[in-house]
Design a protein that fits this description.
Length: 389
């Protein structure tokens, strides 16, 4: 065994952007946390810098290699035979969401002694089977390599949830600072709240259900402000309102004001979730960050052709509503199912409104209980250590 075959004391995390921002959103949060909290030397491989730059404005989309927030970031081309540069694998290699590694890199991993710990970071799901599959080993069909499935999840038996150690403290400090909060709203072009006003962030996919929300909100007895980052939901709301909205624009219909926002970095998006009363979120990462915001939220799940997303939605709702009083649980489930089936939700919204206090209390309990279980990065480091022994 020669020194040159030893894996570098570094982790490699590979990500391909399938669409939107969730794949890179999850990978970027995990990368930053592993570096900041666990002192890992980490190289993050990403194929689509244009998408990445939308959620991390410090990224130079033209540079193939750079360091941001202590993370070494490199461009790669999925499907290529090898990485562009001749790079030695790190002691831990993670594929985010089953992105396939180049054959040349796999061969280099197989040639290492000891061989890197090789993981596939899977999508987050609340389904029961996750606990049984977390940590399962899968031998490579040809090479002397074993890949482990790492499943995030909501239980102690799963891989846990991504969340920084100081997240709750940062959130609470932000919300306790009245002057800072007023300045935050002013930065979005909004003044203090009108009596009874509800502020809702909207980061869903497009769905006809949004039109029925506009109907319910504009006819509401108290003001509703919808804060909508640029993207798919804003495009849909522009269609519904018959008015093209870009970041900085506002539109008013009855009790409803729609405020279009620019996309910000991930920390900026967290602040939006913390500041709003209700958050409409989607995919994986915004869905999770809404839970850490400890506010009532509504999940527009990523649609899958075979309809399995509706089972995943129900699995989450079954878990989330445990301990939530019946009328609030019913209202949340009814709204969530209707919204995700593209049905009208005006009535469901009004029912939900009546349960706001119970949902807010429950959201705080849920966030505290999940945080107490230990976060994904810490569990991942432990998982790796156990395999290195
Ligand atoms: O963008 P998403 O829909 O992403 C995904 C992908 O489509 C993926 O292929 C799919 O498998 C997965 O969903 C389930 O939703 P998500 O996961 O919420 O990611 C959005 C990211 O964008 C998240 O990291 C937060 C970030 N973001 C910002 O950083 N700034 C912003 O202003 C906003 C609105 C979002």
């Amino acid at each position: 065994m020669t020194d040159s075959t030893r894996p570098a004391e570094r982790w490699d995390l590979f990500c391909t952007v399938i669409d939107n921002f969730g794949d890179i959103g999850v990978a970027w949060r995990l990368a930053r946390q592993l570096v900041a909290e666990h002192g890992v030397a980490l190289r993050l491989w990403v194929d689509d810098f244009a998408s990445f730059a939308r959620i991390e404005p410090r990224l130079d989309a033209a540079a193939d290699a750079q360091t941001v927030a202590g993370v070494e970031i490199r461009r790669w081309t999925p499907g290529s035979a090898n990485l562009d540069a001749d790079v030695a694998p790190g002691r831990v290699v993670i594929e985010a969401f089953g992105c396939r590694l180049p054959d040349g890199f796999l061969a280099a991993m197989a040639a290492c002694a000891p061989r890197p710990v090789w993981l596939n970071l899977e999508y987050l799901s609340a389904e029961d089977w996750v606990d049984g599959c977390h940590g399962m080993a899968s031998p490579h069909p040809r090479l002397p390599l074993t890949q482990y499935f790492y499943f995030p999840g909501f239980t102690a038996q799963s891989g846990g949830l991504i969340g920084e150690r100081d997240l709750a403290a940062r959130r609470d400090a932000f919300l306790a600072d009245a002057a800072g909060l007023a300045a935050y709203w002013a930065s979005l072009g909004l003044s203090g709240r009108a009596p009874g006003e509800t502020r809702v962030s909207v980061f869903s996919y497009e769905t006809p259900a949004l039109a029925s929300l506009v109907e319910a909100w504009s006819a509401s007895g108290a003001p509703v402000t919808a804060l909508v980052p640029e993207g798919r939901a804003l495009a849909e709301l522009s269609r519904v309102l018959g008015q093209a909205l870009a970041a900085g624009d506002k539109a008013t219909r009855g009790a409803l004001t729609v405020a279009a926002l620019p996309m910000t970095d991930q920390d900026g998006y967290d602040r939006l979730l913390w500041a709003c009363d209700v958050n409409i979120v989607r995919g994986e990462d915004s869905f999770l960050r809404a839970q850490w915001a400890a506010r009532p939220f509504l999940w527009h799940i990523y649609r899958q052709d075979d309809g399995v997303h509706l089972d995943k939605l129900d699995a989450f709702l079954a878990r989330y509503t445990q301990g939530l009083a019946e009328p609030a649980a019913e209202a949340l489930v009814a709204f969530s199912r209707a919204f995700n089936r593209d049905e009208a939700v005006s009535e469901a919204w009004r029912a939900l409104e009546k349960q706001r206090d119970a949902l807010a209390r429950h959201a705080r309990d849920w966030a505290a209980r999940q945080a107490a279980m230990g976060d994904l990065a810490a569990r991942l480091v432990q998982f790796v250590e156990n395999r290195l022994k």
